Amino acid sequence: MTQHVPLVDLGIQRDRVEDAVRKGFDEVMRNTSFVLGPAVTRFEDEYARYCEVAHCVGVANGTDAVELALRAAGITAGDEVILPANTFIATAEAVVRAGAEVVLVDCTADALIDPVKVAQAVTDRTRAVVGVDLYGQMAPYEALREVVGESVTVVGDGAQSQGARQNGRRAGSVADVTATSFYPGKNLGAYGDGGAVLTAHDEIAAHLRILRNHGEAAKYQHVALGFNSRLDSLQAVVLSAKLAWLDDWNAERRAAAAVYTELLAGSPVTTPRVTDGNEHIFHLYVVQVAERDRVLPELHAHGVGAGVHYPNPIHLLPAFQYLGHRRGFFPVAEELASHILSLPLFPGITSTQQHHVVDALLDALGESPAVGEAVGERVG
Fold it and tell me: pTM for this structure?
């Protein structure tokens, strides 16, 4: 019988927080504060403290979080926003929804936005740059600030870096304003959609709270054209319960990543590199392999739930063909997209599961099983 190893197993986390979630749900049911109630305020305060930043504003999802972060920072029609070509479409969608113009740049070999390319893309219409935190480590925010100057807003897309640090500073506290997603598969995931915006700036936070709730400054006092984008109380309960475990779960992710790296040593697989100054929390364990599109279905046939994040850079998606970019415009992003492969990794993954993943991967690559076995003996 083929062993099945999912890309993500959310059931393990569910079981660990079940009692706390049930207790919190019961409280919400008793007080019937289902939208922007005490549970939301409590989570916002908890997550702001965790991220070592003054403000956390809960919203409906991660895409809204990016858009509202841009809008609250004053980005508007005609402004240019620089972002990496190798990101999920939501980052680019949010820029367009905010009325701004998408300006794509390439990434470095570690898959993070390239500050050198950002410097070359800056014009007199550049109003923001979005540093996308990818796979569990933060974008080079200090370098981005240096190349764009103080007049350009540095925005973080922190959907994949919850709990990470850079030069000792927590994700969410480095950029001027940071958006995050609480989609269930994130390191801090809800039981549905959810998101938040983090900032140290009082004015931005105040604007965010107005924008997320129909532009309302006080009951029926609508001072701006806003949105219905509010984090609901039940999701806030889940997030508070999971936040208490986040550092432990991230430590488990790092330990599992170390096992993979050791098991794959000496193989033709390129394993992840941690950029200097970053503390990686391995939202994903992304390797690079030759013939990825042949290898992936072979892994699936062996019960390994591997995936690809992401197979197409933004400029090669039909939705963004209007930008006029062709294949070859962003060669590093394109090269990575053809070779990256996300291996199963989640808190609670077992050594047996990881050995099965590596054995299946090496077999698909035509490597001798003895390679995996010998390395497996070293790490237990």
Answer: 0.94
